[in-house]
Amino acid sequence: MSGLTNLPILFVGARIVGRLCLEALLSEGARIAGLLVLDESKAGQTVAHADFADLIEQHHVPARPFRTLKGLEGHSHAAWARELRPRLGIVVGVSELLGPEILSLPELGFIGMHPTFLPEGRGRAPIPWAIILGLKQTGVSLFYAAEGADTGDILLQERAPIFEDDTASTLGARTDNVAARLLVDAVEKIATGTAPRIPQDPAIATHWPRRRPEDGVIDWNRPSADVVRWIRALTHPYPGAFTHIGGQKLFIWEAVATTAPRGNVPGEILARDDDRLTIATCDGAVAATSFQWADQSNGMTSEGNVIARIRSAS
Predict the structure, then answer these.
(1) Structural domain boundaries, residue 142
(2) In the predicted model, is pLDDT for residue 139 greater than 60?
(3) What is the pLDDT of residues 260-278, one digit of tens each?
């Protein structure tokens, strides 16, 4: 793809999706003039964080870490990027909006990526929200970045299915792969002057709010199907859905809906087996099959330990 090799690109990236998109471009011979990559000090605060170090070394990409793209630090990054003389910018996996100083650098503008079928689902946490809302499909949109969040003209879009058993991880992987493939096509179209530009219709736009770790509390008064979707939407790599038992915080990472006799109080523990915990909902129950106390080691589940502590507290 000659267009890719002749077009100097400034790539601003973070997370697994940013790395995957950069890797796809590099594998097609794209000319990455420079890379602004999220600083490793932000790893613990970033869902689906990814390290770009090996790509930088392997492909000899001029790179600079950033903690923010605004203020004095942002001005410094813009000055560095200006010396690279990029003709096109790409930003993927970065939650912070680019300011006008960086946005204005490439003559062809910046391409942004959002894992919904814009203008549906503008805003934050698009993967969890798509599952929580029970959507049957979502999408990936590449757009010309503007100062507003996800408001720019559409470049390319593609629908992506959401399956009944999807989690944040599986759906995120699906949309990440679509994004990487679309991005290669989009850059080639821009390089050859054949890229479309389709304005979004603000009248049909929807906006999804930011989610915080404390928002993950489970509402057992909801139907079982809703509770299971909630758990699947917030499981790894997100902070997790949780409940409180005996004043202690319990994360639930995997669960399935199950039947239960009527008349149970939502949130009541109905069964404590060695490998599952069954809790009542408004219309049945949910059987949690992977869970951990908040004070357990990160990433370690010990269902037997949870059950023992629940039994001792009963």
Answers:
(1) 2-208
(2) yes
(3) 988 899 999 999 887 899 9
- Same domain flag for 150 and 233: no
Give the separation between CA 49 and CA 93, rounded to whole angstroms: 9
| Last residue within a domain, chosen from 150, 174, 208 | 208
Residues 180 and 263 in one domain: no
Q: Supply the CATH number for residue 27's domain.
A: 3.40.50.170
- Give the CATH number for residue 295: 3.10.25.10
Residues counted in the chain = 314
pTM for the predicted model, two decimal places? 0.91
CB 238 within 8 A of CB 168: yes
pLDDT of residue 311: 52
* 166 shares a domain with 268: no
Peptide bond into 237 cis (omega under 30): yes
Reported for 56-62, long-range contacts at CB under 8 A and 24+ positions apart, including other chains, are 59/26, 59/32, 61/26, 61/32, 61/34, 61/35, 62/33, 62/34, 62/35
Q: How far apart are CA 109 and CA 58, in angstroms?
A: 27
What DSSP element (H or E) covers 40? Answer: none
Q: Which class for 212: exposed (0-12), middle (13-18), buried (19 or more C-beta within 10 A)?
A: exposed
3-class DSSP state of 304: helix
Provide mean pLDDT across the span 13-27.
98
